[in-house]
Amino acid sequence: MRWFRGAAATPAKPEAKANAAPRTSRRCIGLGEFTRELKGSEDRKLAVLDLGPTSPANIAFLTDRNVRAYHEDILRCAQEPSLYVKKEDGKTALDLAAFFAENLAYPDAHFDAVLCWDVADYLPEELVKPVVESLYRVLKPKGTLLALFHTKDAGPNAPYYHYHIVKPDTLELEQGSGFQVQRIFNNRHIENLFRDFSSRKFFLGRDNLREVIVVR
Fold it and tell me: Can you give the residue ranges of every domain in the chain?
């Protein structure tokens, strides 16, 4: 696995809420496949977990399809100062037990689908595998997860984006701040990361993003 910078020992300051950044449109084949599996009804509403910042567009898109939308911005949560403790060597580290007491604390097999976006590229190293293990736990059998991964051509200064769903196969990307790519996953790393899942399907975009559909 190729590394850029280790996870910051000191949590970054929250993103300033100035005027909204301009958005760019992006076709997402993986999203198209993901949304085709969202077949909720009035009698059986699906539950979908969105791991990005709150997006009214995503909430509206999901609820229009009789889907119950849940939201957890785990990247921001991982920066919460109260979750960091000082170790015996004087270094600070994320308290994993405290993090998972407040995040992804859902019953087993609670969700039909998860929008993971590109959070794995930005998470502190000690959270990557535990977060994926938690997502496996809270997904129902045959549940679907959409993840995005930067390719090596994106580089360490690839901008951080908020992802807004505007069509079943189209996203609007709104540039944010406060995060830097921590690592690059190649296909083998991604296969290993999701090794407990039943299947993985890859789509390579033209903008240095790899789209992955994973089935529990």
Answer: 2-6+20-215
